[in-house]
Specification:
The chain is α+β, with helices and mostly antiparallel strands and about 260 residues long. The protein has a 4-stranded antiparallel beta sheet with strand order 2-3-1-4, sandwiched between helices. The radius of gyration is 20 Å and the shape is elongated. The N and C termini lie far apart (about 45 Å).
C-alpha cells in the first residue's frame, strides 16, 4: 500500500545520533503528509463498541485506588499493518485521556530496528520482527497521562494476539493484531514496558527532546487548570449562552483569545 514516493504517507528519517554502532544509518526519505481532512477517518473498519478505559490490565494487579498515579510519558508505536488507521487510533488515545506530546511518521532502516529491539536479538522471531518493522512506515508517539506506561499497556493488551483476542477482546491488539501464535510480530502496536524503558526509547527516537519519561509538575498543572482555566471557561460559556452567536465555536475561540489565562 505504501510507496517510497511523495504519494505515500509523509515520513522522515531519524536525526543523526552519536552512537557507536553502524546502525546509526537512517533512512532519509521524506514526503508530504496526508491532508488534514483525513483526520479520524474510519474507512471500512468497524466502530469501536466500548471505551477502553474499562479494559482490565492483563496482568491482573491493577488497582484504581492504588499504585503510582503520577504524570508520565511513554513511547507508543503504530506498526506498519495499522498505519493507515493512525487517525482512528489517535481518536481512541484522546478518548482515553492520553495527550499526544510528539508524533512522527517514520520509515525505519533495518539497522535502526536492530538497534531499537536489540534486547530481543536472541529470540527466534527477531529476523521476522526486523523485516516487519522496516518493511513500511510506522508512527511513533510520545504520550502523556497519569500512570501512562501502565495505562497504554492496558489499552493495547498483551503482545500475544491470540491471548489478547481470547481474554481482552476490546484491547487494540485484539482488534487490529494480524498475526496469531505465541511470537507475533504483527501485533499492531508497541508500548514501553516500564518508565525506564520509556525514557530510553523516547531518547532513541527523539534524542534532542528534553522531555523525561516522567513529567514533573503534574499537581501544579492540575491546580492551574482548576483555579485559572476552568473559571474563565465557565464565564465564557455563560456569556455565549446569553448571546447565542450563530457560530458558537468561532465566537468562543475568539473570546478566549482576548483573555489572559
Amino acid at each position: 500500500m505504501f510507496r517510497d514516493s511523495c504519494y505515500s504517507l509523509g515520513t522522515r528519517s531519524l536525526p543523526d545520533q552519536d552512537r557507536s554502532s553502524k546502525s546509526s544509518s537512517i533512512c532519509s526519505a521524506s514526503c508530504a503528509r496526508l491532508p488534514e481532512s483525513a483526520s479520524c477517518q474510519i474507512s471500512g473498519y468497524e466502530t469501536l463498541p466500548v471505551s477502553f478505559s474499562d479494559v482490565p490490565l492483563f496482568g491482573g494487579d491493577y488497582d484504581d485506588d492504588g499504585g503510582d498515579q503520577t504524570f508520565q510519558c511513554t513511547l507508543a508505536i503504530i506498526k506498519p499493518e495499522v498505519v493507515q488507521l493512525m487517525y482512528k487510533v489517535e481518536c481512541v488515545m484522546e478518548q482515553n485521556g492520553f495527550i499526544i506530546k510528539t508524533k512522527e511518521v517514520l520509515r525505519l532502516s533495518r539497522d535502526q530496528v536492530v538497534e531499537f529491539y536489540e534486547e530481543h536479538a536472541q529470540e527466534p522471531y527477531f529476523t521476522r520482527l526486523v523485516n516487519h518493522m522496516s518493511g513500511g512506515p510506522v508512527v511513533v508517539y510520545v504520550l502523556s497521562k497519569r500512570n501512562c506506561v501502565e495505562e497504554w499497556q492496558r489499552l493495547i493488551g498483551p503482545a500475544d494476539v491470540t491471548r489478547a483476542k481470547r481474554l481482552f477482546p476490546v484491547s487494540l491488539r485484539a482488534i487490529y493484531g494480524t498475526e496469531l501464535g505465541s511470537d507475533p510480530v504483527a501485533n499492531a502496536f508497541h508500548g514501553s514496558d516500564s518508565p525506564a524503558a520509556a525514557e530510553r526509547e523516547i531518547k532513541f527516537f527523539f534524542p534532542n527532546n528534553k522531555m523525561d519519561a516522567t513529567t514533573e509538575g503534574g499537581e501544579d498543572l492540575a491546580e492551574y487548570i482548576k483555579d485559572a482555566m476552568m473559571p474563565t471557561i465557565s464565564t465564557g460559556l455563560s456569556e455565549m449562552f446569553n448571546i447565542r452567536p450563530n457560530d458558537p465555536l468561532r465566537w468562543f475561540g475568539n473570546w478566549l483569545l482576548t483573555r489572559d489565562v
